[in-house]
Amino acid sequence: MKLLSKWLLSAMALLAVAHLYSGVEVQSFGSALIAAVVIGLFNTLLRPVLVILTLPVTLITLGLFLFVINALMFWWAAGLLDGFQVRDFSAALIGSLLYTVAGMIINSALDSLFPK
């Protein structure tokens, strides 16, 4: 139940990001659902590999390069999907920051609703 709730809320967060920031466009709620899954899969499968491969750069930038990795995940997901577009890399950076903040709020709320 928690996973389904997180998926639906993440799709709604993606729609909210598209509404708040013009650099990100989502055509429908169905597109947002698919985009949320793709972003989640990228963050689960690709992000750890990229973090390890870019560890020296991440250490030199005191962790700020992780924002670039998040933006790349966001941008690549938009590149794969038709109903989800991101204008350019700077839009991906801003969109991923907004989406990450929304995801943190969602995780916090779901942790309090579904205690372990």
From TrEMBL:
> Transmembrane helix as a keyword?
yes
Pfam families (alphabetical): Phage_holin_4_2 (PF04020)
Q: Which residues cross the membrane?
A: 28-46, 53-77, 89-110
The protein's UniProt keywords, in alphabetical order, are: Membrane, Transmembrane, Transmembrane helix
InterPro entries, per the entry: Phage_holin_4_2 (IPR007165)
Cite the PANTHER family for this sequence: SLR0284 PROTEIN (PTHR37309:SF1)
Q: What is this protein called?
A: Phage holin family protein
Upper lineage? Bacteria, Pseudomonadati, Pseudomonadota, Betaproteobacteria, Burkholderiales
